[in-house]
Amino acid sequence: MKRILYFVLSAVLVAMTVGCRDDKNDAPAMVSSLNAFPGHNRALVEFATPEGAVSGRVFYGAGKFKNFTIDQSAARQKILLSQLPEGEQVIRVVTYNSAGNNSDPKGVKVTVYGTSYSSNLKNRTLLTLKRVSASSIRIDFDENKREDELGVRVFFVNLSGSNDSVFIDRSLKSVTVKDINLTKPYYFCTVYKPAPTCIDEFVTSKIDAKEASMKIFTKDDWIIAGVSDELTGKEATKLFDNNVLTDWQSKPTAMPHWVAVDMQLEKIFSGFSVVQSQDPKEVGFSKDFRFEVSNDNINWETVKEGRLKAYSYKQSFHLDKPITARYYKLTIRNAYNAGTTSAQLAEIDLFNDLKASGANGTDMPTLKNARAPFKGDGSDLFPGAGAGRMQKITDWTHSSNVKISFDITEGLFSPWCAAVWGVPAVNNGKMYQTLDLLPGLYLLKIDVGKVSSNNCAEMYGVVATGTTLPDYNVVTTATETLGQDKLSDHLGVTRTIPFTVKTPSKVTIGTVFNLRNMYPVDGTPWTYMTIRGFTLSPQ
């Protein structure tokens, strides 16, 4: 009986094995040469046509799939998957034969691109746009480009009235667009391809090239449309040569003096900047001005009147609203030197929210750590007054005899001594900062604080040429002193020190002082004088 049962079971097992082998042999082979090419929220799946397969299924995402029918006439099958999320996707392909038997699955990974990628795309920067003829323009773009950029496409209406376009390959930076109707708008966009195998191109939003070009300035194209007068070697063209070391200077005739500039094309600008002469000499600085615009060099509109600062740094003026104009005129009405009848300026630039016509001039330097609350250096110079309370103020140079200059409880500029406690009185103490200043008429305002007791301190506010300050006993007579004021005579008020810098110079600003030991006089163990702030500005 056992032998019969063993024989039956063996026969069944052999039959099952043979059956399974037959099913496997009847199934299509696993797909080969499987590739997946990325796209914009989609992917193209390709593979060699498997022998015996009539249909298939592509699986992707979380349980999603797409059925397809095998094209027997094609050597390779292509299936497009749409609405895929951005990021890496795993795709598996299974095929079926006419009996319904399936192949083993074959998988491939692909990175799909979408909003996250496209949101970081930027248009190539338009540099210049020049009219070549009545029906052609030359467009120049910045050479800076990303590795995934293909190029720039320009869209326009041609002279036949049809929509047209031209493509600028990434290897090029300019194109001449011909047969263009310049009375119609024309646009450009930048084309990207995130990977060489990507099936889609990504494009930025279109930019109105005509409007964009109106915000780009080409000073090389500017010419003088008119000038009141000029000196030889100081012609009006020096006003826009991108060199602050050259000047336009008028003849010494009666004020006002003016210059009109033709930019050749209409431009959009919202303001202008001016740089005064870097070497004003006896002519000095121009003062009050009028700024006008025109589109025909005949009819002028005043869009700004104001006063220039009397220094050689860049100064900017914003208009009430953006202006579109081809011509502008700057009129100098008078000068800071009362007897001057000449006008002189080094450079002028226009700007808008996108561009400026140049980067001429520099900004005036400022004093550091110059207003309350001042900052200390974090030291602990007199623990007896409280841990970390007495420090030195940062960013100010101290003479060696000034040991303490900052009380953290008040946050003020405060040179301090306490001889009875081992911090000696100060004679000829100095605290200062040194700046490189261009020529100009300046004001130093010092907000004077208080003293610890009557007659305990003598302090001058001082401006001097060089890298230090004169000694206390010669402050008022030293040749290097540009300006000074006896601050200790004017407690609780703001004092103003006017001074003039005639040539580019190192200028030192600060205080020179004496702090007396008041303990023998009135029993006060400490002495200090405070300053609430320093402000440096042009006149």
From TrEMBL:
It comes from Segatella maculosa OT 289. Coiled coil: none annotated. This is F5/8 type C domain-containing protein. Residues 204-353 form the F5/8 type C domain. PROSITE patterns: FA58C_3 (PS50022), PROKAR_LIPOPROTEIN (PS51257). InterPro entries: DUF5013, FA58C, Galactose-bd-like_sf.
